[in-house]
Amino acid sequence: MAAVPVLVMPLKLWIDRPGPLTAESGYYPSGHTATAMVAYCGAALLLAPRTGRAGRGWAMPVAVVLSAATGIGLVLRGYHWPLDVLGSWLLCGMLLALLVAALRRIDNRGAAGSGTGAP
Fold first, then answer.
1. Is the overall model pTM greater than 0.85, yes or no?
2. CA separation, residue 119 to residues 31, 36, 111 (Å)
3. Peptide bond just before 29 cis, omega within 30 deg
4. φ, ψ for residue 25 (rounded to 5)?
5. Which of 12, 32, 87, 112 could cross-link with 26 by S-S, CB 3.0 to 4.6 Å?
6. From residue 11, how far is each of 30, 47, 88, 104 by CA, in Å?
């Protein structure tokens, strides 16, 4: 979550794009969409291994639907252009891919350090 403003705010300042219903700028990428996606999908990634097989089946699809609903709602209400939301989804997709890689690395270290693996 802490990485979202670190990534989004410099892009908003650099691109300085106006919003759909205002002359004010700083709307690309959508910070609300980015925060929602990282929160929902990050929670699903962290919860899925601890909820068993059933958790893996529903956690990420629910997170994706909630993230999509947030972004689409922002566009429909006129707060963002569709490209603002798409940019956030792509940016946070990369951020979540890094989280998955980090979680796998932690899991692999735990399995290797437990001494239960085959020699």
1. no
2. 47, 43, 12
3. yes
4. -120, 180
5. 12
6. 10, 30, 10, 29
